[in-house]
Amino acid sequence: MTIQAQQPSDDWIWVRYLANAHPYSTVRTAAWSALVSSDPDTAIAAFLQSGFDFAVERAQQRRISNMDFIRRVFETTTVEYSPEIHNEAKRLLGPNATDAEREAFVRTGYEAARSRDRVYRDEIGTQKQALVQRDRDFVRNLASNDPGEQVRLSASHAFRVGATDDDLVEFFAYGWATGSRLDLEVFRMRHANDNMKWRSTITRLIADAEAAEKAAREASEETKQQAKDAAARAWQQVGTQTEPARSGWTQAQDVAVRQAENWRAVLAAAQAAMGPNWESIIDPARSSEAAWLAERDSASQQAAYWNALLQQAIDAEQRVKNIN
Question: What pLDDT does 2 receive?
Fold first, then answer.
């Protein structure tokens, strides 16, 4: 008997999550292709077996990684606060841009556009003039206490030795949103990779346990007890190997909840401050809260999946012990 936890819907849910949320566009495209296939069960199984790894490998090729970088830049900047970066990223995402132009932007163009935006903000002067001590204290606190490593690094950079108010303005203008996006992508990628490894291991162990149970049912009276013991151990191994996934997804839920609460607080602070610097973080804060709430829900689904596998492994272990 095949051990299942609401299959195939759980496979579909996981692949749909990857289609919506994985940072690599190649993974999202491959996952969607499996979901909309004329034979989705077969396509999803193939994606989980080898398609995911192939899509990740493709994503690591330079051309696609350049596109992912440019898309991230475009989505974490605004024309109001970073017009040079934002407009150039927008152009490079269009159909008329060349791969050579995108490569040049990633290598040197991005930093050059950042410098031009800094000059632009200096000339306008509104954001720097609006800075108050409360803003400095808030960002300094983020450098030590924000739940996201990338946000902490970005905030720390704004207060490094030799930093000026220009660096603090840059943090509000794009550093905060960029750090937030990177934290979300790192979270998604880490758990996607871990879950694929866990699923690969558990699939192999389930197949071994099924074979051992079959052997126990077909064993002669002289060897039946030995075969039953072997099958019980095999199912016990299945249950044991759910622990890393169950623990991992429980921790993921905790991280997602903390991040969502953090961004809810940031949104409230930005709405209360209503200055030109804080206005730039309102939309990213709102989006970040929603994204982390979605991660919380997805982690909850995956935790339930692995808990169900554990229970079914326990049931199977008991079942083989009762084989006559």
Answer: 46
Tokens for 143, please give them.
């450098």
Residues 6+ apart with CB under 8 A from 230: 212, 215, 216
φ, ψ of residue 164 to 5 degrees: the values are -125, 180
Q: What percent of the chain has pLDDT over 90?
A: 84
pTM, two decimal places: 0.86
Query: What gap in Å lies between CA 265 and CA 272, rounded to an integer?
Result: 11
% helix, strand, coil for the chain, step of 5: 85, 0, 15
8 cis-preceded (ω within 30 degrees of 0): yes
Buried b (16+ CB within 10 A) or exposed e, 257-272: bebbebbbebbebbee
Residues 6+ apart with CB under 8 A from 72: 178, 181, 182, 185
Contact, 35 vs 47, CB < 8 A? no
